[in-house]
Amino acid sequence: MNQPLSPTSTDSPPHSDATNAAFPVVSRLSRRALVGGAIGSAGLIGAAGRARPAEAKRSMTARLLGLPLAEKVAQLFVFEANGTSMSEAYDERLRTTRPGGVVLVGANVGTPEELRAFVRAIHDSNPEMPPLVAVDQEGGLVSRVPDDPAPDPTEMGQLSSAEARAASEARAVHLRRFGFDVNLAPVADIAYASDSSMAMRSYGTDPSTVARTVAAVVTGERRTRIVGSAKHFPGHGRTSLDSHDLLPSLDVTLDEWWETDAEPFRAAIAADVESVMLGHLRFPNWPGWDDAAASFSPVAVDLLRRDLGFTGVIVTDDLGMDALAAWDPLEVVDRAIDAGVDVLLYVRPPLPDADLIGHLVDRIERGELSEDRIDKSLRRIARIRRR
Known about the structure:
The chain has 387 residues and is α/β, with parallel strands linked by helices. The protein has one domain: TIM Barrel (Alpha-Beta Barrel). It is 43% helix and 8% strand. An eight-stranded parallel β-sheet has the order 7-6-5-4-3-2-1-8. Helix 8 crosses helix 9. Mean pLDDT is 87; it is low at 1-10 and 12-53.
């Protein structure tokens, strides 16, 4: 069983039963209905996506690179939402910092009408470059938006590829109806034992099952305009420790990892997953690994880029988790950016948003960090925004 997860964390369970009660109860769709309904609904979403002006798609990179320096840097940050509706203070915060994204957790989910209005208001806080609104909707233990038409992860892993693909598509369509842009899923970790921290969140206990299901989930999600994120690279399934509280250290060798935990991530990348989330994990037996967590390790980033050929967006898990308590928050920012991470995620930010953004701006202005380094990440982020 998983250890209890914090309700404010990006990987935590829903906020309360009262939140679920705000939504009408619907019965589980049959497998046949799931396949047919998902494809039909997604077709409408896809048509809407194709209707966007081609000029806007082509100019996205130029628009991002043309932003003022502070706004360019802010595009590399995703911060937590505040409340269940837009307040004057939160609107001012968003309009001031202009982050690249906002993540909603269980505490931010009110009634269906409130949720749609809140997501819309977040987008409206920056008409020129709306924040990408993200959510964790893995299904089962980690679900934010009730009435998810797809099954929980353990059941998803037992479906055929076609059924898992259709279920994933149906879930993505469900999220798009509320205006979400990003789903921080699927979990690509393998739950090797019943006490794995991913036991209730993984698609299975063996690499081939998890890899097959991850590929199907990514493919289904990509049929819609939802951006996915395979997590928690390089793999969280071998430990019973919860990285919300502690930093797990895994003794698996790199050779063994290539034969096992790497397989689901290879499958996600082959299916064109848009982003990969780095976990708060250490692999001290790997060549070149220092004291870093994978979330700011150049070894982990290099493994993704060079060895796995991933060209998409690399995002951290929540950098406010207690697993990283040993490091100064600004050191974490520096090391993540220096390692080549594209997006820094904060559900429990240890410092004000403006201080985290301003720190990188100051480094650039002092000549310690090149603006070209920021631009490289913006080019990758542009591909996501074009979706």
